[in-house]
Amino acid sequence: MSDLVAENPQGAPDAPVLARLSVLDRFLPVWIIAAMALGLLLGRLIPGLDDALSAVEVGSVSLPIAVGLLLMMYPVLAKVRYSETARIAADRRLMISSLVLNWLIGPALMFALAWLLLPDQPEYRTGLVIVGLARCIAMVLIWNDLSCGDREAAAVLVAINSLFQIVAFAALGWFYLQVLPGWLGLETTSADFSVGAIVISVLVFLGIPLVAGFATRTLGERARGRAWYEERFLPRIGPVALYGLLFTIVMLFALQGDAITSQPGDVARIALPLLAYFLIMFAGSFALGRAIGLSYAKTSTLSFTATGNNFELAIAVCIGTFGVTSGQALAGVVGPLIEVPVLVALVYVALWAGRRFFPGDPTVPTPTVRNR
After folding, report:
1. Mean pLDDT, the chain, as a whole number?
2. How far apart are CA 318 and CA 340, in angstroms?
3. Which residues pair with 366 in a beta bridge?
4. Number of CB atoms found within 10 A of residue 261's CB
5. What pTM, to 2 d.p., does this model score?
6. In angstroms, rounded to a whole number, what is the distance separating the alpha carbons of residues 357 and 345?
7. CA nearest neighbour of 297 among 6, 83, 12, 96
8. pLDDT digits (tens, 9 = 90+) for 122-142
9. 237-252 in b/e burial notation, b at 16+ Cβ within 10 A?
């Protein structure tokens, strides 16, 4: 909700959530579904489009998708008040909860669901485990902004996830694909992950927009002041994030459309554990945030940073390790097919839950006042 988050950070009580939205924001779920459909259609109707889109890569990610991700993240990171990030980082409840949810509970839950629901599909199961290890560092910023979450907290948590991703991804992959299955008497999978590719992914898709966002705010406030920056400049660049989101979705599904549409039965089987994972992680994270006394804004941020996954990295790892036509790669591709619409729906769930379970909290967005 580009105008909302630019002009009314943290859901100030004098701004109805839906009444102030542009057409783009108001019908965002429609545009996202249309973007997914367009991408799938382009992938099926234009021969060789997937090869053309993947001909040039940045950090193992197709260049058009990389451009979309950077356009999507820059406006969100330009909105962050970086002077407040030290205060956010000092919140031990938020920091510890996020680390536990992202690096202990999330991967373990995906491992359990993959083995429970896909016991006879080792390739899909492995792909899902890899998806569970790739914690979100990009699109989660959009979901957080749409739900009026704490923008500064999101920036801090995404940065922490990025560091842990570099350090822990390969080790956790070894643990969940070889060590833990061996302890449980289950089938093991050998896989070598490129730490260099993970580092490049983090530096490109978080580092570039983070530096650009920080420089924009610093120079903008120094030149024209905070009031001009937040009231005049941010509303102008805000819609770029959603345009970048829609462009990324079109490109992603155009690139992988053939893999998705050619195996509908397998896609449905992969979708079930993914759907269960997103719902369980979001509900559990939201309940935890409320239980430990976080505000609505921080609870929403905690929930979306724990629920979302870095599907760009997961797809790149699956393709690079097992091949573009592998079952692992298909599982990675199905990830955003389920994640995007589900997390859009969870944005509306979060807004409803905030009004229901956080009475009197000033960070809860005010509901729309309907004309009678």
Report:
1. 84
2. 19
3. 16
4. 14
5. 0.81
6. 18
7. 12
8. 999 999 999 999 888 777 888
9. bbbbbbbbbbbbbbbb
CA end-to-end distance (rounded Å), the chain: 25
Which residues, 6 or more positions from 195, have their beta carbon under 8 angstroms from its beta carbon? 166, 169, 170
- For 151-203, the pLDDT digits (tens) are 999 989 988 888 888 888 888 999 999 999 999 999 998 877 776 777 777 77
HEC states along the chain? CHHHHHHCCCCCCCCECCCCCCHHHHCHHHHHHHHHHHHHHHHHHCCCHHHHHCCCEECCEEHHHHHHHHHHHHHHHHCCCHHHHHHHHCCHHHHHHHHHHHHHHHHHHHHHHHHHHCCCCHHHHHHHHHHHHCECCCCHHHHHHHCCCCHHHHHHHHHHHHHHHHHHHHHHHHHHHHHHHHHCCCCCCCCCCCHHHHHHHHHHHHHHHHHHHHHHHHHHHHHHCHHHHHHHHHHHHHHHHHHHHHHHHHHHHHHHHHHHHCCHHHHHHHHHHHHHHHHHHHHHHHHHHHHCCCCHHHHHHHHHHHHCECHHHHHHHHHHHHCCCCHHHHHHHHHHHHHHHHHHHHHHHHHHHHHHHCCCCCCCCECCCCCC
CA angle 226, 155, 339 (to 5 degrees): 125
Distance CA 43, CA 258 (A): 6
Pairing outcome for strands 61-62 and 57-58: antiparallel
* Structure token pair of residue 46: 């234009």
Give the CA diameter of the chain.
64
Q: From CA 62, how far away is CA 50, in angstroms rounded? A: 10
Query: CB pairs under 8 A, 24+ apart, for 292-296?
Result: 292/93, 292/97, 293/93, 294/93, 294/94, 294/97, 295/150, 295/358, 295/361, 295/363, 296/11, 296/354, 296/358, 296/361, 296/363, 296/364
Helix axes 234-261, 28-45, angle to 10 degrees: 40
128 residue type, one letter: L
